[in-house]
Amino acid sequence: MGRTIGEGTFAKVKFAQNIETGESVAMKVLDKGTVLRNKMADQIKREISIMKIVRHPNIVCLREVLASRTKIYIILEFVTGGELFDKIVLGRNGYDGATADIWSCGVILYVLMAGYLPFDEADLTSLYRKEQYVSEKIEEKDTGPLMMNAFELITLSQGLNLSALFDRRQDYVKRQTRFISRKPAKVIISKMESAAASLGFRIQTRNYKMRLEGLTSNKTGQIAVALEVFEVAPSVFMVEVRKAVGDTLEYHKFYKNFCALLADIIWKPVPEAEKSVQG
Known about the structure:
- This protein has helices at 32-37, 41-53, 90-93, 97-114, 124-140, 150-154, 185-198, 248-261, 272-278, and strands at 4-7, 11-17, 24-31, 62-67, 71-77, 146-147, 176-181, 202-206, 209-215, 222-233, 236-245.
- The strands form 2 sheets. Strands 6, 7, 8, 9, 10 and 11 form a 6-stranded mixed β-sheet that branches.
- The protein is built from 9 helices and 11 strands.
């Protein structure tokens, strides 16, 4: 690892070389303490998760992620040519970075969610008519569960779980769990409320989010659990359950008992062996 080639608020970028292959790389070095103090852990995890799945000749390639007790090392493709900022003639071109980037991100997010561009109409009259129709439908529609976007679904993969970068205990005990249901969202909420009530929990429900509060199975401590229903596809919902307060092992006992009461709404894929027999 050699000279500093860039520096930001939370990280320094160093020039480095792979001693086995001789490849030049850029090494982004982050201090864990600084990241945690500034509540940037989720943002860093999201950045790494997205870079792991994006492969494009015009996007810097992520080579590897390493971590020590105090540092996180993000190994990136080394790009020559200096700072991108130096290439942009701000005054003459009238470039407004914040406005342009927010607009671009909005269009990209729309395409990810809808599968097509937001302004793809033959003329302005057709575009205005379409926007008016969408606005009216939004006002009429009962607000349902949040729809998970593509990046969120991909980062649920165990291979992209970056929690251990910031908390080594995550390697041993998970603090959140999830299950899939093909029942309507309102039925899922109703069933969960009934199951939680039978276990003696106090229940707070708002929209498609729920908070449960009560005693642990041995009645010696408090436990609180947060739940949220997400739509991942038409008629397919994912329920994310996570511990908010209390002992993690006690949370997993709760989750096992809770799921036992929800067996009729939890979807389980048919094993391949059974499929071949049925076929």
